[in-house]
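This protein record is not my work; I was only asked to verify it. Where you disagree with what is written, explain briefly why. This is what I was given:
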Amino acid sequence: MISLQIISDVLALIVAIEALFIMILEMFFSRTKMAQKAFDLSMEYLFTPETKISMANQGLYNGFIGVGIILTMFVLPQSIATFNLYLFIGFVVVAAIFGGFTANKKIIITQGLPAALALISLFITNNI
């Protein structure tokens, strides 16, 4: 049987990988059909200079979250890692809720659901 710790780790890695994917999309591929579909924005809007700059900055922050989760999982001692995972994954949950209300409702599912499941899994794993 798969342990709760493994499930928790896999969910946290999914959140990190998704954050890194979003970083790449926002920073380097913001003017593509993939970005248009992912973010539900018009190509006209994506080709404005302000949008490119704004998305690159947003991507940078997503990258920080992804790298933070990965470093937390594989570098930090367990005593610190648990707190940091709650923090970073909690940031993703809050950002997804905010983004769902202000930008695009699908963010709640695409980013929020994996992060919420990871957070719940972390809580269960560390409190049993």
Q: What stands out?
A: Helices lie at 4-28, 33-39, 43-46, 49-74, 78-102, 106-126. Residues 96 and 112 are 5 Å apart (CA to CA). The longest helix spans residues 49-74.
